[in-house]
Each structure stands twice: as C-alpha cells, then as structure tokens.
Amino acid sequence: MTDTEAASQEETIAFLSRPATHGVARVETIETHTAIVFLAGERACKLKKAVHYTYLDYSTPEARRRFCEAELAVNRPLAPALYLAVESVTRARDGGLRIGGEGEAVDWLVVMRRFDQADQFDRMAERHALPIELMRPLADRIAAFHRRAASTPHYGGVEGMRKATGFTIENLRLAVGHGLAREGVERWIGRAVAAIDRLAPLLERRREAGHVRACHGDLHLQNICLFEGQPTLFDAIEFDPALSCTDVLYDLAFLLMDLRHRGLEAHGGTVFNRYLDRCDEADGLEALPLFMSARAGIRAQIAIANALHRHEAGDNAALEAQARGYLALALELLEPSAPRLLAIGGVSGTGKSTLAYAMAPGLASAPGARVVRSDILRKRAAGVSPESRLPESHYTVEAHAENHRRLLAEVRAVLAAGRAVIVDAVLALPSERGELEALARQAGVPFQGLWLDAPVEMLERRILQRRGDASDAGIEVMRAQLQRGGIPAGWQIVDASGAPAAVAAAAVKLLRPANAT
Q1: Which of 9, 386, 477, 479 is 20 to 30 A from 319 (CA-CA)?
Q2: Within-domain flag for 184
Q3: What is the pLDDT of residues 419-431, one digit of tens each?
Q4: Domain total for the chain?
C-alpha cells in the first residue's frame, strides 16, 4: 500500500466512523485483516482495506470497486436479504466526502442489512450459547448450496490444493519471529506437503468427478449468523476463484476445524454426519484431515496478519497465542487416526441413533466417527430429506436387501479412508451382522457389536412420541422385528431403558480399545 493510498483511506475511515455521516446516533466498527465494517443504524457498510497480500490485492480504488461488486454477486444467492448494494464514497465540490454522491469516487462500500452481532455463530460459541440443534439445519443449508453450485473442474485438484497451501506456507514463514517458531512451522509444512503428495490421485479423481465447485471458500463460524431464525452463510470469498472453487469437503472442513478449535466436538460431529447424510461424499474422507489441517494453517496466518495490520492497536500477544494454537491444531489434525467398526443394533425404539450420535465424537479424532444409519441411506437413495416418509414400496424384502448393500458399501468406503464407523441399523438378521464382522476383518480393523434392549412398553411409547425422525417404523414393525430373533451371540448387551446420557456412559464402558483384536 502506498503512502497516498493509506492517507486516502484514513480520511475515508474517519468519515465513515462519524455518526453524522449515516444520520445515526452511534457507529460501531468491526475490523479484520482485509476490511472494516461500520455498523450504523439498520445498515452495515463494509470498506475493503487498501492492502496487498500474497493472495489478494485491494490496493487501488478500482480494485476495491471490482471486488465489492464481485462480493455482492457471490453472496446475494446465499443471503439475498442481507446483501443490498455497492455504493461509492465520493469527493464533493466542497472537498468533503459523501456516500453515493455525484463527485469523483475515492472508495467503495458493500452495503448490507445489519443483523445482531450477538447472532453471529462465533459470538454465540464464545458465550457457550450455540445450540447444537442449529447444526442440522446448518449442514442442510451447506449441502443444498454445494449441490446447486456450479462444477469448476479447471480449479481444485492437487494443483489447487498446492496453490492454496502454498499461500499459507509463504505467510507462515513470514510470520516466524512474530509469534511463531520456525521449528513448528517447518514441521507442519513438511507434513502438509507430504499429505498432498500422497493424496494427489484422490484429489484428482474428485476434481474429475465434479466434486470441485464454486463454494463459499471462507466457511467458518464468523461468517455464519442466525438471521430470521435460520443459519445464514455470508462473506464468501470473492477475490480469487482459485480459493473459492474448491473440493466441497475442503469448503466444509473450515467449519469442522473451527468447531474442533472451539471444543465443540459434538457440534462438529453433527455437522459432519448430517452433511454426509445429505451428500454422498464418503469417497473423499481420506482427504478430510489434510483439508481441516490446511484450514487451521490459514487461521494461523490470519491471526498473525491481524496482529501486524490492525488499524487500531490491539492485543497482539493474544493474536500471536491464537496463531500458535491454530498451528498446534494443524499438526494434530495430521496425526494418523485409528479406524474401527462399531455396530449398534436393536429393534426400533431402543435409541440406536441417539446412542450412535452421542458416541461418535469420542470414538475418533475430529470430526468424530461417521454414523452410517440405514434409515437415512434409504432416504438419500430416494432423493428425499431424512425426515420425509417413504411409501411401503421402499420397505419390501428386496428394497431392504438393496439398502443393506448400500450400507456395506458406505462402511467399506469410510474404513478405506481410515476413519471410524458406527453402523446404526436394526441388524435383526444373523447374515447382516456376519457381513459387518467379515467386512471389519477384511479391512483389518477392530469390530464390536452393541445390542440395545428395553421393555416393549417403553419401545411403544418412544415410537409414538417420535417427531422429525428418519425412521418410518411404527409399533407393528417393531413387534415384527422382535419376533425375528433374540440377542446375537458375542455382542455386548446395553440396557437402553435409562436416560440417553446414562445409556451412553454404559455403552462407552463396554468398548474395547481401538487397537484391540
């Protein structure tokens, strides 16, 4: 940034900071390493800083105008009620500045409808008030966005990953001596580069198969808010399609990493599993640790950038500590995981799904174990939401066998990716249970089966009380399941009549270590 550009923005920042500019009593500001947002009344005016990083260039007014217009175009489909217009900051005849005046444009703004900053997901997480119940609709929104996003096969793949990681490598090396130690930076670089090389064939297969799309690119909690009662994505990357046109799992990985960084493992597990319930992406899971690690590396470099390029003096020591925390997480996420197969069986109403999702975060490294639920695979194959009811034609003997084949295929793919799996299905037939155990042996991973049992009267009551669940089974179906057979030999029995937390605690005690044979 030149001295002239810095001076011109100082004047613009002072102008936009004055309440009289907006006709309000008070203006609040939010600053990042690339922008300053002025909150005034019902509007939020976003000014891009005159900065030039390795990965973006906002250094001239013309560049800022172009990227303001691009930001509006990219984000309006995600949040049409939030993104209003691009407006100029102009020089009036009297020498003063105006918003949207007729004089020469000296800068540009993205004008948005203001929302309550307390409803930003990062702030909700900081005050321990981010409901896990919002994670399913959030994952649904992301999945729907990814499904309709345009395929961009000329981006992404191994070269796209090398380019994105290359920016991080360059910036982390520049940060050595500004809060980061060279040894930790170089250790992460070595592991990340090795992981990209190892996964190159997978990254290319996914690019060629259409999994690289025009995504959000910056999908962490700070860029999600609760607006009009719904999780809403905003502030997608506009300055470089090479950073936003990525593998859909790399896009999702930013959110999963952020939830892990904040200690919200159950939230992350819910997003992870719900997203895969809606999108068949199991073949890409082997790359997920690399994707999440790369996202942590990005946050480390941004923390340092915030410390070095703040308009106002801040707590640089805290930002440097934040960068070190992200770098440590980036290294942790590249540690090898321990795949295993846990099957949870039992008739309808025993609480298999509740137990599976409760156990998933603790069964594997972030974002936890993949829960493969037979009811949801059936709905995904039919092209409907998990909570939609299906006609009886989807529950014939032949349809059940086909769905079990889908289940085995997904389990096989997840284990091949090196991740832990929890199978959630009735599994009343000995042949089905035997196939799962054989699959674990073939994959060389530990297997354990838990069988849930509860009194019939309780099962009937639970089934009648179900709301918004993927299971279509009623009381008659449950009774028929009970008559197919008893408790399977060799499986651990879990009393499922207690409260969910008590059932989960009892089940965890029964698990063997992941390296047990």
Answers
A1: 9
A2: yes
A3: 999 999 999 999 9
A4: 3
